[in-house]
Amino acid sequence: MGLKEQILESVRQDLVEIEAALTENLKPYLPLVSHIAKYIMFSGGKRMRPLLMVLSARLCGYKGNYDKTLSIVFEYLHAATLLHDDLVDGADIRRGNPVAHSIWGNPATVLVGDFLLARSIAIAAQTGSVAIVDILAHTTAQMSEGEIHQLLNRGDLAVKETEYMEVIRRKTAYLIQAACQVGALLGEAQQEQVQALADYGYHLGIAFQMVDDLLDYTANTRVLGKATGTDLREGKLTLPVIYALSRATKEDRRRMETIIRDMDMTASDFDTVLGLIKKYGGIAYTRDRAREHIDQAKKSLDIFSASKTRTLLEQLADYALAREM
Amino acid sequence: MGLKEQILESVRQDLVEIEAALTENLKPYLPLVSHIAKYIMFSGGKRMRPLLMVLSARLCGYKGNYDKTLSIVFEYLHAATLLHDDLVDGADIRRGNPVAHSIWGNPATVLVGDFLLARSIAIAAQTGSVAIVDILAHTTAQMSEGEIHQLLNRGDLAVKETEYMEVIRRKTAYLIQAACQVGALLGEAQQEQVQALADYGYHLGIAFQMVDDLLDYTANTRVLGKATGTDLREGKLTLPVIYALSRATKEDRRRMETIIRDMDMTASDFDTVLGLIKKYGGIAYTRDRAREHIDQAKKSLDIFSASKTRTLLEQLADYALAREM
CB of A120 within 8 A of CB of A27? Predict the structure, then answer.
């Protein structure tokens, strides 16, 4: 049995309960809100964030029955940002389907994103924990700033690795960190445990985004559910190309820049850039950085004694690195 | 001294402190977020919502110094919805200035709206009161649903008064209600007082939106800061025209419908519709409904003993009806 199958086997029941909570708690008064929200939420999402929250709570000894409900906050928030980000990026396809705004238009998509964001805070408030609400509100503010930063960097060929890190920290890592941290808080964990799970989530989140950015260069298109090279076509420079540009000869650098600046990059242009990225080790470098973060994520869990849940969190980290979509 | 000048005289110091809090608490890490947020927030807003929160707290005996900071939550939330709504409506002008999305583009405008929304919840969480956070989160969800409902109604000539009420309740009244209610909660008011201020805010909010909708037909364009007839041109049917359509003869109804359906309504077309709205009492009817809600708002305050603050809240209600912009 492969790693993915092992994980899925272990979390089957959790996933069933998370799906049920996702459907039960939406409660809009307009059917359209439900349609759009469900379209984005039930189109192949892996429920990584809710699952991480549930497992983090369990690792800290949580025995209550509010974990599944609270966990969906992270899926609602994630869905809200997907709706807004696809619109911001001018994307066409997500997970093999047309993006929501191409079906329902920008206005409804913006507003349903707002609705999901607000619902997620409302559900979090039901815990009665201001600390949890506070984490979510700050994370949401950071996420929008990360997306704006990415937008400002668009097409900028001088973007540095440090700036890339600033962006992915805000747009991706903080939400995954928040899921783990909130799980620990729900489990009334000690400060040290809360911090350990926050660190785990942070490093996992960084690695997860790096792998996402890698897959945009290397994935099988059918598995990915969209064409490779999307980031580059949107003028989004990610670590593989940032690293390669920093190492390339003047001549190769100019070749890459010319292609990236071209609005109508052909498949053969993309292959040329990919060849140069590989030549200068951009793929290997990014994978190495991702692996380091996965190692740090797993190391953060050392303070917890061995358990089935800890093993599962470690497996999830390994899978984040090994995944093909 | 006119009513407006009297009110401004009484709240001068409060407004100064609210302005200071608005600037101090934004704290984005990107300058662009600050630019866009300030553009929408410092372009002639009247600070009605923060002011209502501050006065509501004071009426309930609040003596602390967190009121101004908390009050800006309502301006941030309001600004967030203005950014998103202008984009949703495809508006060009707000308060005499080009709308934000025409300067910075839709993507940044969507994301800065998200940022403001998140910041407002984060500031509310600083109170340590889950009840306050909960009100804000629910209000935000309702507001997005109100806007979606309005969007769905767009161009629909069969919209009824009840449906119009559903929309304005969500898109406008609940936020003003929340400001008053949160003020009362900050002032640790008794349940009866919280309810009274919630009622005051609700009816004030309904009347405020009705007057807004009236002004779109009757205002002096220079004072309004945008052309009259904007709602109708956007296919937004408000109470004056809904009422007139319900009372018009078959023939007049058809004349109005033809003009409203026309994408390129001329100034003379608009005058024709306005004439028919007046003929069937749409303006007078809307003003009467608004006056009833203002009366109910003021009546809600009866449980409070006479005070300078209560008088001020009553004056604000009168001004909401009398205002020319």
Answer: no
Q: How much is the average pLDDT of A212-218?
A: 94
Q: Which of B106, B114, B134 sits opposite A117 (nearest CB)?
A: B114
Better-predicted residue by pLDDT, A97 or B272: B272
- Contact residues, chain A, for B107 at CB < 8 Å: 87-89, 151
With a CB cutoff of 8 Å and minimum separation 6, the contacts of B135 are B178, B181, B182, B185
Triad A10, A13, A16: Cα angle to 5°: 130
What is the residue extent of each domain of chain A?
Answer: 3-322
- SS3 assignment, position B206: helix
Provide the 10 A C-beta neighbour count for residue A248.
20
Percent of chain B with pLDDT over 90: 73
Chain A residues with beta carbon closer than 8 angstroms to that of B148? 30, 32-33, 108, 111-112, 115
Q: Cβ of A137 and B147 within 8 Å?
A: no
Instruction: Tell me the shortest Cα–Cα distance from B107 to chain A, in angstroms.
Output: 4
E strands, chain A, where?
93-94, 97-98
| DSSP classification of residue A129 | -
The C-alpha of A160 sits at a distance from chain B's nearest C-alpha, in angstroms, of 17
The residue in chain B having the minimum alpha-carbon distance to the alpha carbon of residue A36 is B148
Are A110 and B111 an interchain contact pair (Cβ–Cβ within 8 Å)?
Answer: no
Query: Which ipTM did the prediction report?
Result: 0.89
CB contact under 8 A, B140 and A121: yes
pLDDT of residue A155: 87
Of the partner residues A33, A89, A124, the one whose CB lies closest to the CB of residue B145: A33
Contacting residues for B278 by C-beta, under 8 A, at least 6 apart: none
Residues of A in contact with B112 (CB under 8 A): 144, 148
pLDDT tens figures, B221-274: 666 666 788 899 888 999 999 999 999 999 999 999 999 998 788 889 999 999
Distance between CA atoms of residues B196 and B202, nearest Å: 10
CATH of the domain spanning B3-322, picked from 3.40.470.10, 3.40.50.920, 3.40.50.880, 1.10.600.10: 1.10.600.10
This prediction has a pTM of 0.91
Write down the H helix ranges in A90-129: 100-125
Interface test with B, best of A25, A119, A145, A167 (most B CBs within 10 A): A145
Q: Say if CB A240 and CB A279 are below 8 A apart.
A: no
| Residue from A96, A123, A134, A108 nearest A33 by CA | A108
Which residues of chain B make contact with A119, given a CB cutoff of 8 A? 137, 141
B169: phi then psi, degrees, rounded to nearest 5? -55, -50
- pLDDT tens-digit series, residues A224-242: 666 788 899 888 999 999 9
